[in-house]
Amino acid sequence: MLNDLPHLSAGEGPPLVVLLYTPQAANPTGVARWSTMRLVRPFTGHFSVHVVNRPPGLPPTTTMADLAAVYADAIRTTFEHPVAVLAISTGGSIALQLAADHPDLVDRLVLAGAACTLGPVGRRAQRAYIERARQGRHPSPALAEVVTESRIGRTLLKGLLWLSDAGRQDHSDAVTVLNAEDGFDLRGRLGDITAATLLIQGDRDVVYPLELARQTVAGIPDARLVIYPGRTHSATFTDKRFAPDALAFLTGG
Fold first, then answer.
1. Angle 250-243-225 (CA atoms, 0-180°, nearest 5)?
2. Residue 168: domain span
3. 107 near 100, Cβ under 8 Å?
4. Which of 39, 86, 87, 201 has its CA 20 to 30 A from that of 7?
C-alpha cells in the first residue's frame, strides 16, 4: 500500500491523504505521533485517513516536482479514483505541486498555512536551518522566528527546539525537503490545478504571508480562502475552527 511509503492510517470511508512536514522521513513517534493523530482524528469519522511521509534517503538535488511525483506514484498504485488531500505548511507546497503536475489524482484539496511560494521570513528561517545542519549544529532553533513574534518567546523556544534535536545526528532528509521548498514557486502554474481548493490562512502567518495566500487562491480556478484573524502560522491549523471548516469543504459543503 502507498508504495511502502511511511504512513499512518485510521478511520473508514473514502481516502483522505494527509501531507505534513516532519523532520525525519519516517512515521512520527512519541509526542509527535500523538499530536499528528490528534490533528487528524476529527476526519477519521468521515474518511479513511492516510498520513503519508516521504521515503528516506532522497537525493539532495530533489525538487518539489520530484517529491510530488513520489506521492503521485503512491496514490496512483493504491487508489482507483482521485483522492481528497489535506495538507499543512510545507506539506501544502508538495500538495500544490502534486495538484498542478498530476491533476487527475486530486479531487479536493484543503491547505492550511501554505501558499504558492515561501515568504521572506519563512525562506530566511529555512535557509538558516539548512546552514546549521550543514555545519553540524542543531538546526531546529532556526525555526523559532516563524513560531512566535515575542523576543522572550523565541529565546525560550530556541532552547526547546535545541533539545528536540538531541539524539538526531542526521538531518539530511529534512534539509532535502526544505531545500526543495526553497526553490518552489508555483505562481506560473496555479491555473493547472483543477481540484476544488480551500486555503485556510492566519492573517499573522509570516512563513506564507496573507498576500501570497491571496495570490494562490486568485490563481486557482476553483478556490476559496478562509482567513483566521490574529492567527499565526502554527495557530491556524490548531484553531478550533480548522477541522469543522476543512470537513465541511471536503464533504461537499
1. 65
2. 121-174
3. no
4. 201
Same domain, 128 and 229: no
Overall size of the chain counted in residues: 253
Q: Which amino acid is at 221?
A: P
Spell 177-198 as b/e; 16+ CB within 10 A means b.
Answer: bbbbbbebebeebbeebbbbbb
CA–CA dist 198, 226 (Å, integer): 8
- What residues in the chain have per-residue pLDDT under 50? none
**Angle 236-23-197 (CA atoms, 0-180°, nearest 5)?**
40
Contact 212/111 with Cβ under 8 angstroms?
Answer: no
- Max Cα distance, the chain (Å): 51
Measured between alpha carbons, how far is 190 from 166 in angstroms, rounded to an integer?
A: 39
Grid coordinates of 243 = 477541522
**Cα–Cα dist 80/234, whole Å:** 33
* DSSP symbol at 46: T
Q: From CA 60, how far away is CA 58, in angstroms rounded?
A: 6
Q: How far apart are CA 205 and CA 120, in angstroms?
A: 12
Are the CB atoms for 201 and 225 separated by under 8 Å? Answer: yes
Do residues 233 and 143 lie in contact, with contact meaning Cβ atoms separated by under 8 Å?
no
Cell numbers standing for residue 145? 522566528
Q: Please indicate, yes or no, if residue 180 is contained in any of the structural domains.
A: no
Count structural domains, the chain.
2
pTM surpassing 0.90?
Answer: yes
The percent of residues in the chain predicted with pLDDT above 70, rounded, is 91
Do 107 and 207 sit in the same domain of this protein? yes
pLDDT in tens, 45-83: 999 999 999 999 999 999 999 999 999 999 999 999 999
What pLDDT is stored for residue 211 in this prediction? Answer: 97
